[in-house]
Amino acid sequence: MSDFTSGFWNIYIVVLTLIGILGCGLLLWSQSKHKITLPPGSRVQTQTTGHMWDEDLTELNTPMPRWWMWLFYITIVFSLAYLVLYPGLGEYAGKLGWKSAGAYQQELKQAEADYGPLFAKYQQQDLKAVAADPQARAIGERLFLTYCAQCHGSDARGSKGFPNLADNDWLHGGEPDVVKTTIMNGRNGMMPPMAAAVGSEKDVENVAHYVLSLSGSTSDPIKSVLGKPKFSAACAACHGADGHGNQMLGAPNLSDKTWLYGGSADTIMETIRKGRTNTMPAFKDFLGEAKVHVLAAYVWGLSNVKGAAPQ
Amino acid sequence: MSSNTTPEVAVVKMYAAREEIYAREVQGRYASLRWICVWLTQILFYGLPWINWNGRQAVLFDLLARKFYIFGIVLWPQDFIYLAALLIISAYLLFLATAIAGRVWCGFACPQTVYTEIFMWIERKIEGSRSARMRLDRQPASLEKFARKFGKHAAWGAVALWTGFTFVGYFTPIHTLAREVVTLGLGPWEWFWVLFYSFATYGNAGWMREQVCKYMCPYARFQSSMFDKDTLIITYDEKRGEPRGARAKSARADGGALKAKLGDCIDCSMCVQVCPTGIDIRQGLQYECIGCAACVDACNGVMDKVGSPRGLIRYSTDHAMKQGLSGADIRRRALRPRVLIYLAILLAIVVAFGLSLAMRTPLKMDVLRDRGAMGREIEDGMIENVYRLQIMNTSESPHRYRIVVDGLPSLRLAGADEVTLNGTETRSVPVRLRIDGGQAGKGSNKIHIGLQALDESGLQVREEAVFYVPR
What we know:
The structure holds two protein chains of two kinds.
Chain A lengths: L6 H25 L1 E6 L9 E6 L3 E4 L3 E2 H20 L14 H25 L2 H6 L1 H14 L1 H4 L23 H10 L1 E5 L3 H4 L2 H14 L6 H14 L1 H4 L25 H10 L1 E5 L3 H4 L1 H16 L7
Antiparallel strand pairs in A: 2-3, 5-6
Chain B lengths: L7 E6 L1 E2 L12 H19 L4 E2 L2 E2 L1 E4 L4 E4 L2 E3 L4 H22 L2 H6 L1 H17 L2 H9 L4 H27 L4 H9 L5 H21 L1 H7 L1 H5 L10 E4 L1 H4 L7 H6 L2 H5 L8 H4 L20 H13 L6 E4 L1 H6 L3 H6 L4 H22 L4 E7 L6 E2 L5 E11 L5 E8 L5 E3 L3 E4 L4 E10 L7 E11 L6 E10 L2
Antiparallel strand pairs in B: 3-4, 5-6, 6-7, 8-9, 10-12, 11-12, 12-16, 13-15, 13-17, 14-16, 17-18
Helix pairs in contact in B: 1-4, 2-18, 4-6, 4-8, 6-7, 6-8
């Protein structure tokens, strides 16, 4: 703590609070009745409060009900009891040790107790069985919309740089367990900049056209032929000689029309020149395995269970 | 005198203990009217939660699910404005009634009055009449006193518990609640509210009574702003009554001197004895007067007995008292600008409320664009946008809806265009919209997304949205 937040301010607040409360009590007590000196000759009267202004202006005494006074006293006792039990006086933590962070933890624990058994039940089941369970899928959809839709879209079809999860085309493999591992531990997609390895700018263009030809897209046949040897030298190590990719490495299949960053010649050339870095964060610690289990089943089910994908 | 020259010291107490009011039982036209009001309001209050409607409780304020069921109507948090309108209508009804007839609400329909009436009836049945109760309270402790007091409080407690139970029954299904009460299986909050409301009833109607009206009720504080000199009030006819005084029967018979000197008020203090707030109406209009007309009934009874005309204490107005207006004059003056304005505003709100409630569409939809991917280009140059439709079927029956889109050429839905929702279900439905390339300018384009129920032609909503074409 800095010097500014020394004990002084705590004491300041404690003193102010206690003086305030005790002052209220004192005021109440001192004002509940008071003595008045009647002018000589007048009879004892209780019609007025004894206050007098401008020589003859007096205040009628229409007393408050006494239970009301007791209510005031009770609030004072209540506030003191509250300050003993709960934090409110400087650094004093209160007898109950209540903290807002503790209350949050307690709510978390409660939620865990409420919903934990349901997730635990699914965790016992095979991922494919969970994916076939309509209730689990509804839970999975809500989890997906909360935690995954920001990147992969509400329909799970991704966008530029974010994989489509509903098309049964997988970078790391589409087995249920692999999907679960991906969500649990995250992934680091890394395509290194290859401009230097491929060669000149002309070579880069040629390789790009060869890549386009792999998936049967429109390409320049001459450039494509010229690019093939460069591809074999620089790219085949990861993407395979025929461009089918390698799921062990997370290297994309280049022989289909699914593109993570776009399938135009310019985009492919840029990818070759500068490489790509992509990160899927790990959800193991954040969501816990039980929720990831349901989520993985849902995601896998999008492309594997009939009727599971958003229509 | 020497004592006059020394200053005297007196102690003024600023808080006073309550003085018990022993209200005498009263019979008459207004007392009967009040009992009718007690019966009507209580049959309504105790009976309503037990009525079923379409397989559910007819009136249920389900706070947990945030759905309010009132017979055929289901209100959602989005319909909160209806609650506000209802409160405004109630307020204007109160203002109108007050402007015309003073505190009739207080005297006849206010829960504080109604439950006090019930509790006082129990009190009379167990402890006896006013004088018997005063005697009982002065008595030293005895078995009989204990038995009567205990019986009274037990009976009060029973009524209070039933009231608390019924109250909670408006917020949690009362049939289940009844079973839980029998098996003592209430949840902690149900226990709390049943006991809290019971305690409030017992305390307010048994102990606090007139103090609620005098010190706690906010309405008592501002009702005077709705009053004017043509508002009906309960008033003592001073011209006719004064000078007041007791008289022997013979005095009336002798006709002469005494009758000339005395007014009609025989100073029997019946009007004071029956007053539930313990005031003397003969001192004029006071803020403690709740307009219950018990003194009117009492005084009329006395006037009948002594053979004078009724109405020494009666409903009248300030103007009427001062200018000697007739009943017809009073009625004619009821329709003055203040009353007409209240009436006009009230009518306008009631009509607007009724119309909007009747025309309400039991279907709501929010359109949320996906923000992670604004718009994407897919095969064949098509542009695709993703939306999340937050659909609420606020009716109680399931419906099948068609999703309809318009606003851009070739705009269409990818995937199924129909969605089914169960009664009172809320669901998030992801939808993809597509256009062919070149059919819209780059950037955002205005479109509409709508829902059309397939089984009910009028049931539809339409929301504006934005279709984004990547630059």
